[in-house]
Amino acid sequence: MTGSTALMRNPSHKGLPPAPGSQPDDRSNSERRAEAEMARVLGTEPLRMALESSGAGIAHWQHDPLHDVVEPMSHHVIMAYNGVMQRMERRTGKSVAIGTFRRGVVIVIPEGSSSRWDIPKPVDVVQLYLPDATLKRVAREAEITGTDDLLERTAHPDPITSRLLLSAADALGGNEALDTLFRHQLTDLLATRLLVAHTGSPTMLQPTMGGLSPKILLRAIERLRSDSDADVSLDALASDAGLSRFHFCRASRKAPAFPRTPGCANTGSSRP
């Protein structure tokens, strides 16, 4: 998303908010405000950012590959990815989540959580900084029952949330009052969506088969067996799965239903 970002203001090193200790905050001193922690770990400034005194806001970042720990933050952070497709890894304690960043996926970092991120390529992402008080208010007003504890999400498919958040960087401009009104309405809408789709018990994913998820496996088989003119080269199949040629061949070998893939023999990973 490199087009108009009129909703958010151009930040500068002088315009970034002061450290959390310099303004009232009821959070522990061990938790930074989201925008401050992101600036620290990403080592750069956002392209655009609209931020309120509470720390709530929206920011558009483009940053280099990341291999570092994101420390606990005093806001929920929701991200919509908009960059090149790439595999990544997130470590939280002894838990490891491996996913594929692509347009249409979201990342949720609940307040107070901390993870190590390993992202090998540059990143283009729009972030929402959501105070827990806002989430609880929206839950009360919408009469949404059940838990309002956000789940940790890593490259989780959610086109609705992704489109809503990405639209924040492309909508409105030249009228600060309208920008603020839009941002407040969008934040409440996103909070409602999060309560519906990203709270409760974690969704149990189907076990993978031979290193390919059932969804990717089915899509690749359908592509190979299709009578259409779709590209069925090894490069195309691997790219669609978000894998390298080698890893795609190695994973597909172990899937019983997967047919012989043209080109895999050349990598030394063909099916017997």
What report would you give on this structure?
By secondary structure, the chain is α+β, with helices and mostly antiparallel strands. It has 2 domains: 34-198, Jelly Rolls (Sandwich), CATH 2.60.120; 214-253, Arc Repressor Mutant, subunit A (Orthogonal Bundle). The protein is 29% helix and 22% strand. The protein is built from 7 helices and 10 strands. The strands form 2 sheets. Strands 1-2-9-4-7-10 form a 6-stranded antiparallel β-sheet, with helices on both faces. Strands 3-8-5-6 form a 4-stranded antiparallel β-sheet. The longest helix has 22 residues, at 176-197. The chain is globular, with a radius of gyration of 21 Å. The relative contact order is 0.13. Mean pLDDT is 77; it is low at 1-28, 203-209 and 266-272. Keywords: DNA-binding, Transcription, Transcription regulation.
How would you sum up this structure in a few lines?
This protein is α+β, with helices and mostly antiparallel strands and 272 residues long. The protein has helices spanning 34-42, 132-141, 159-167, 176-197, 214-225, 234-241, 245-253; strands at residues 48-51, 57-63, 66-70, 76-81, 86-92, 95-101, 105-109, 115-119, 123-130, 153-157. It is globular, with a radius of gyration of 21 Å.
